[in-house]
């Protein structure tokens, strides 16, 4: 757990410009404030701090114009997420009964 804001150097590696960082962090903070589940546990209750940690840890991807793209969670072994299936157009095969 970390309560401080991530270092600017780390954020600059993840985001193409300061403008995009400000826009994306504000958008994500608004989503969190309106009830979206935080993707990191940074020890802060402040939505902007949480949003910056999500960006720094790569949980939120930011496009050049500041659009927020939530990174898909890594599926566990043998498990596919519904969002990943939909985004890739892949339908999970039905389980075959064991003989």
Keywords:
99 residues, mainly alpha, Eukaryotic RPB6 RNA polymerase subunit, two-stranded antiparallel ribbon, 4 helices
Distance between the termini: 47 Å
The average pLDDT value, as a whole number, equals 75
* Unreliable parts: 79-99
Task: Spell out the CATH superfamily.
Answer: RNA polymerase subunit, RPB6/omega
CATH C-level class is Alpha Beta
* Rg calc: 17 Å
Measured as a percent range, the helix fraction is 40-55%
What is the second-level CATH architecture?
Alpha-Beta Complex
Going across the biggest sheet, name each strand in turn: 1-2
Overall number of structural domains: 1
> How many strands in all?
2
**Fraction in beta strands:** 5-15%
Q: Which outline best applies?
A: globular
Written account of the structure:
This protein has 4 helices and 2 strands, in the order H-H-H-E-E-H. The chain is mainly alpha-helical and about 100 residues long. It has a single domain (about 10-90), classed as RNA polymerase subunit, RPB6/omega (Eukaryotic RPB6 RNA polymerase subunit, Alpha-Beta Complex). The chain has a two-stranded antiparallel ribbon. Helix 2 crosses helix 3.
What are the SSEs and their pairings?
Layout: H1 8-14, H2 18-33, H3 47-56, E1 60-62, E2 68-70, H4 82-88
Antiparallel strand pairs: 1-2
Helix pairs in contact: 2-3
Please summarize what this structure is.
The chain has 99 residues and is mainly alpha-helical. 40% of the residues lie in helices and 6% in strands.
